């Protein structure tokens, strides 16, 4: 019964077989701008049994999505961000209610949307630029990045705004963001700072179904630094000053003022006198500019410069300007020297224009000359060097004859011509006194100064009747500058003699006066001859002597005094066309305007009286007054710089008119430019009502908060410049920048670039006190209220200082370590990714040659099994990884860090030999105990000292010579160096433990082992020997000491001549020669680097060649060289020529013996050839397996082993012995040995030679010349090689490393 039930149950179970559902969705593409709750995709799954399915999702990225349990529709739960994760995976889980869950990984490719604005990097852009920076200078580079992909991630730049408005000052490269200066900066005339608003825009892209262009802006603040590029400016030069002569030394005359126009530099100004027309009279204080008297002033010594001292004053800055020179400017100060009455009148004798001071004069006059007649031959002039009224003087006569004469004029000013006139004709009587004497006394009219001149008058004896005038003195008048011919007066004389009536003629004296006045000879009418010269301002009056001559030439005289009347012919002259003055506003101002009128100060006229007034042309005329008579210009009240139109730059222009009181009145004018200095008398004032209120988002460094505005009424930049500062409430979180704008200055408040506001902190609001101050410390304060707005902004933290150690060659895929980041946000999800790797390879940091490590998304660092970690390639790996918070909303969602992985070296590299040369040449005779014969080099790629230190040891020595290969005892050893050389190689000298056998001809193969710990490498060092047969003896007729001294020079000449390396073996005296002078033998070897050497014949041939003899013969001769010997130790001194003769004779004898023997043995040769013919067949049938690979030994049926040199009869294998030697006689052996010619058995053509048929003896001689083989054995072996095939390799080779010919 149990068996049927079990069978029934099995049937029912097999009838109901439910299948698993199948998920067909594998890859999904989504845009990152899908909104939360928006449809993403649907998980497509089928169940063959049509069971109802339920859907779930799991995996790392499942938190971004929500799936509807029964439909499989997936919607967005958390916003996607392609820039954070462009490929996502979720596990789709489907269940049919019967079996366990079915899982499948769905790959989600996130497509880009233009959802990121360009973000500026490296903010803030604050640059300080010298105002003289050249156009084209790159100020900075604005850099913004857009995390979007493709065109939406390409950023372009432009300048939106420049404040002050000067867009032509800067340019920006649209593609690179390089900001360049394209205009000329000027701190003084333009602006001391600029604000540039830079716009960064992406290339545009789709966002939420629309094409949008994202952009952002940043403010760059450019501060212009003033440089000293403007020369100093005088404030009150050029100008005039006056000082009296004899003023006390040190008295202040004038104060020079200057300033530095570079207001941002405001360098100190120093003063000096650059040039003057009167040296050492004045000095200037370097710092204050005060001009003072430096030495005693004598006005009369300065008359050659019109008593006006001109000072060229230099104002210099203290520090060098931009051109590395001291900037300076020069202004002019004219100092008029006022006169002091300190000179007495003096007498001069003048001849034309030349005058000489004199106090004794002589003249003559006729007796009883008329009253007023001038003493003849007197040229007396009185001069008083003082000026003006101080030069006025009075004249009178004194002395024994003073009553007989009088002086004319009796007074004068400055200078005057003086005449002595007859006063009492009766007293002038030749019969009483022939010589008369008077003294002319000149007395200063204003001081107690007198001078005396003695006049000696010689009387002439004349007739008694003379023409006489009605008056002794006539006073006449005429206007200055009258027309030529103007009649002054008609004066006539009478003569008592009746016959002289109507015959009187007239003449004016002195002759010099005739250039101004003339007289009609017949009528006595005096007229003007040069009216232009008559100038009241130069000479007020002229005194003439009018002479009347009768027929007897008797003369009567009278004095005519002509007064020059003044006319108003000189307008007042302003001392300067333009007066420059400076006054600080709110201060008193005073400057003297000076004009001079050259009209004579005649009390009867007012032609030279000057009065001053201010022209009404200026709008500021009412603000000033001027003294009518003295020209002192002053301000009526305080001057306000702010009342002046700003375009005038603080300068008030007045016109001052100077007029005289003559008829008609004449006038002139001068401009007065008054620079009103700006005083800081206005405080800044805010333009907006306080308080200001702004809102700002947290976590953005340097974000712009908002502006405050203020204005200062002062006009100059220095006084109206406003600087904003936050005095309270900032807590170090905000900064403010000042910039000018059209209405004043703006204070831009930004978050400190080094500070991020944190809404989560206890400061969500700030109340700032912002102070607007000018340079005069005047200020105003405004209150600014700032509200911080919250954003999700905290990035995760990457662990710092993470250093790992990993052994090289590590291959296990287990985590080396795990990166564990931190995030203060409570809602965060951290993933990790590898950013880049750099490696330190051979001491240089750069890209890694291979990616040795992998960073898993969970932070595990594992070794990449695709590569082998090799310390010798790189010893440090700098792994840059990123920790990403996928829930970050705003700001950076990641941070990067560096994990330093130190690769630990293990000893995994064996030493490697370095062969610097193929072989070493050894002169056997020179080898002794400890002699170095070679050197071994090796490197080790390991780095640690204990892993790469290498030692050498000699394991085996094999000698290859003419007798074959022999293994030598270890007479060589390695002398190791403990330290590496400069090239990183370990070295050892191969030294000999004993003297080497002089008969060794060949080479030593030295097997050297380089050992490093358990690792080692073997190399072979090849030594080529040179024996005593190549020793060459050179003869010198010098002493041993002299030859040793010249040894370097001898070696150098021989090496140049032979091109070989010269090894000096011995130098000794040739004591065997019984000569008066000592001879010396020098033994040497001439060795080439390839191991070959020159023998006696070769050296002789070279040194005896014409070319070498011309170049080096004379040099060797000067060193005592006389010839060459084969050996230098032959005591008999036999000449080389004797040995040559003996050798030739011996050779001839040998030739004769050989010929005789050949004739005797010719028959045996035939027999031997027949044997060779038979042997040919046997040789051809030798089994190829028994053949040896070495070449045939010529003349035998034997082979060498392993390619040995054919001349070395070594290790003959008996299997290849054809038995030719068994029955052969000695003659046969000799004949066979004759095959040892220089025939290269390896030549291809020998392998291909045809086998020649053996013919009869009589035919052999005829064909021998055509056959390439001279013996039957050669033909037999050639035939055998032919049968083996033309393609078979030859059995011989040429060993170029050991050339017995060279040795």
Automatic annotation (TrEMBL):
It comes from the Eukaryota. GO terms for molecular function: calcium ion binding. One of its GO terms (cellular component) is adherens junction. Transmembrane segments: none annotated. One of its GO terms (biological process) is cell-cell adhesion mediated by cadherin. This is Cadherin-related family member 2 isoform X1. It comes from Danio rerio (Zebrafish). The gene is cdhr2.
């Amino acid at each position: 019964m149990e068996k049927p039930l079990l069978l029934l149950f099995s049937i029912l179970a097999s009838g109901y077989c439910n299948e698993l559902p199948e998920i067909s969705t594998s890859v999904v593409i989504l845009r990152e701008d899908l909104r939360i709750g928006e449809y993403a995709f649907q998980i497509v799954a089928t169940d063959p049994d049509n069971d109802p399915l339920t859907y779930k999702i799991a995996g790392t990225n499942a938190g971004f999505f929500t799936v509807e349990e029964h439909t499989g529709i997936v919607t967005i739960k958390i916003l996607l961000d392609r820039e954070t994760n462009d490929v996502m995976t979720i596990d789709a889980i489907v269940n049919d209610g019967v079996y366990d869950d079915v899982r499948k990984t769905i790959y989600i490719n996130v497509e880009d949307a233009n959802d990121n604005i360009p973000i500026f990097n490296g903010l803030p852009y604050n640059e300080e630029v010298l105002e003289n920076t050249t156009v084209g200078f790159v100020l900075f580079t604005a850099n913004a990045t857009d995390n979007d992909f493709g065109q939406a991630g390409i950023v372009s730049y432009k300048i939106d705004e420049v404040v002050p408005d000067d867009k032509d000052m800067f340019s920006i490269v649209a593609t690179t963001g390089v900001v360049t200066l394209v205009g000329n900066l000027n701190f003084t005339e333009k602006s001391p700072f600029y604000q540039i608003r830079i716009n960064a825009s992406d290339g545009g892209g789709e966002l939420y179904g629309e094409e949008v262009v994202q952009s952002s802006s940043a403010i760059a603040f450019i501060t212009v630094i003033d440089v000293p590029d403007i020369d100093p400016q005088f404030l009150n030069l050029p100008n005039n000053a006056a000082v009296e002569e004899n003023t006390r030394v040190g008295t202040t005359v004038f104060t020079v003022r200057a300033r530095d126009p570079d207001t941002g530099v405001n360098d100190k100004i120093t003063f000096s006198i650059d040039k003057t027309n009167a040296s050492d009279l004045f000095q200037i204080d370097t710092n204050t500019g005060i001009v003072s008297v430096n030495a005693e002033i004598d006005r009369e010594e300065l008359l050659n410069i019109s008593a006006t001292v001109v000072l060229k004053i230099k104002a210099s800055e203290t520090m060098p300007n931009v051109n590395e020179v001291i900037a300076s400017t020069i202004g002019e100060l004219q100092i008029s020297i006022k006169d002091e009455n300190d000179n007495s009148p003096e007498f001069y004798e003048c001849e034309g224009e030349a005058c000489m001071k004199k106090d004794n004069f002589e003249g003559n006059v006729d007796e009883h000359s008329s009253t007023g007649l001038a003493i003849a031959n007197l040229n007396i002039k009185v001069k008083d060097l003082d000026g003006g009224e101080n030069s006025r003087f009075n004249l009178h006569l004194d002395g024994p004859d003073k009553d007989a004469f009088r002086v004319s004029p009796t007074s004068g000013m400055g200078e005057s011509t003086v005449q002595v006139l007859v006063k009492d004709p009766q007293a002038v009587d030749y019969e009483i006194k022939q010589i008369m004497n008077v003294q002319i006394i000149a007395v200063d009219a204003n001081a107690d100064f007198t001078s005396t001149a003695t006049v000696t008058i010689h009387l002439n004896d004349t007739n008694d009747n003379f023409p006489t005038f009605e008056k002794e003195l006539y006073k006449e008048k005429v206007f200055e500058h009258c027309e030529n011919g103007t009649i002054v007066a008609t004066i006539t004389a009478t003569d008592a003699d009746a016959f002289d009536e109507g015959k009187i003629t007239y003449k004016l004296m002195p002759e010099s006066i005739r250039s101004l006045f003339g007289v009609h000879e017949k009528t006595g009418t005096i007229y003007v001859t040069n009216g232009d010269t008559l100038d009241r301002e130069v000479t007020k009056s002229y005194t003439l002597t009018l002479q009347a001559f009768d027929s007897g030439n008797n003369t009567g005289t009278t004095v005519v005094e002509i007064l020059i009347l003044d006319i108003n012919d000189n307008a007042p002259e302003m001392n300067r066309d333009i007066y420059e003055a400076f006054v600080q506003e709110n201060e008193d101002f005073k400057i003297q305007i000076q004009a001079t009128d050259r009209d004579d100060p005649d009390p009867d006229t007012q032609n030279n009286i000057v009065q001053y007034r201010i022209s009404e042309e200026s709008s500021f005329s009412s603000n000033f007054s001027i003294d009518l008579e003295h020209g002192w210009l002053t301000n009526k009240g305080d001057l306000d710089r702010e009342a002046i139109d700003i375009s005038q730059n603080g300068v008030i222009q007045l016109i001052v008119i100077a007029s005289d009181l003559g008829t008609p009145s004449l006038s002139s004018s001068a401009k007065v430019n008054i620079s009103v200095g700006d005083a800081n008398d206005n405080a800044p004032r805010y333009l907006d009502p306080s308080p200001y209120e702004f809102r700002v988002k947290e976590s953005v460094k340097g974000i712009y908060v908002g502006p405050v505005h203020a204005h200062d009424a002062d006009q100059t930049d220095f006084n109206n410049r406003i600087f904003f500062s936050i005095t309270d409430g900032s807590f170090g979180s905000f900064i403010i920048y000042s910039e000018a704008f059209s209405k004043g200055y703006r204070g831009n408040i930004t978050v400190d670039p080094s500070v991020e506001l944190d809404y989560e902190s206890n400061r969500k609001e700030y109340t700032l006190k912002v102070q607007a101050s000018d340079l005069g410390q005047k200020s105003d304060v405004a209150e600014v209220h700032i509200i911080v707005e919250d954003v999700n902004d905290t990035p995760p933290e990457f662990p710092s200082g993470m250093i790992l150690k990993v052994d090289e060659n590590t291959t296990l895929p287990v985590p080396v370590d795990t990166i564990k980041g931190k995030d203060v946000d409570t809602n965060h999800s951290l993933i990790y990714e590898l950013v880049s790797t750099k490696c330190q390879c051979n001491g240089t940091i750069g890209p890694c040659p291979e990616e040795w490590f992998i960073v898993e998304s969970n932070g595990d660092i594992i070794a990449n099994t695709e590569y082998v970690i090799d310390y010798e390639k790189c010893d440090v790996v700098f792994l840059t990884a990123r920790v990403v918070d996928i829930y970050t909303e705003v700001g950076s969602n990641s941070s990067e860090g560096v994990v330093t992985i130190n690769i630990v070296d293990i000893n995994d590299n064996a030493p490697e030999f370095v062969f610097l040369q193929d072989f070493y040449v050894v002169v056997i005779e020179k080898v002794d105990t400890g002699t170095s014969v070679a050197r071994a080099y090796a490197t080790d790629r390991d780095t640690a000292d204990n892993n790469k230190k290498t030692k050498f040891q000699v394991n085996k020595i094999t000698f290859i010579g003419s007798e074959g290969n022999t293994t030598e005892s270890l007479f060589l050893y390695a002398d190791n160096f403990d330290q590496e050389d400069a090239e990183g190689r370990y070295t050892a000298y191969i030294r000999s433990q004993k003297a080497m056998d002089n008969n060794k001809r060949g080479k030593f193969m030295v097997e050297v082992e380089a050992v490093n710990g358990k690792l080692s490498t073997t190399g072979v060092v090849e030594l080529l020997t040179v024996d005593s047969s190549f020793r060459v003896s050179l003869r010198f007729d010098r002493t041993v000491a002299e030859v040793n001294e010249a040894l370097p020079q001898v070696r150098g000449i021989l090496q140049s001549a032979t091109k070989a390396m010269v090894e000096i073996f011995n130098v000794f005296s040739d004591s065997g020669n019984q000569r008066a002078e000592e001879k010396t033998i020098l033994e040497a070897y001439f060795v080439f680097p390839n191991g070959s050497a020159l023998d006696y014949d070769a050296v002789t041939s070279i040194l005896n060649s014409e070319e070498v003899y011309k170049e080096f013969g004379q040099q060797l001769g000067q060193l005592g060289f006389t010839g060459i010997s084969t050996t230098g130790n032959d005591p008999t001194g036999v000449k080389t020529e004797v040995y040559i003769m003996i050798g030739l004779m011996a050779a001839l004898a040998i030739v004769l013996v050989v010929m005789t023997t050949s004739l005797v043995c010719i028959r045996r040769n035939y027999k031997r050839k027949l044997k060779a013919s038979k042997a040919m067949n046997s040789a051809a049938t030798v089994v190829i397996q028994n053949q040896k690979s070495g070449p045939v030994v010529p003349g035998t049926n034997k082979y060498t082993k392993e390619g040995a040199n054919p001349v070395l009869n070594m290790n003959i294998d008996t299997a290849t012995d054809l038995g030719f030697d068994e029955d052969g006689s000695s003659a046969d052996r000799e004949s066979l040995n004759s095959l040892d010619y220089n025939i290269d058995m390896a030549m291809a053509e020998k392998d291909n030679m045809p086998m020649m048929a053996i013919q009869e003896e009589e035919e052999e001689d005829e064909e021998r010349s055509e056959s390439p083989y001279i013996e039957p054995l050669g033909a037999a072996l050639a035939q055998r090689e032919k049968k083996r095939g033309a393609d078979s390799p030859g059995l011989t080779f040429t060993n170029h490393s050991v050339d017995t010919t060279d040795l």
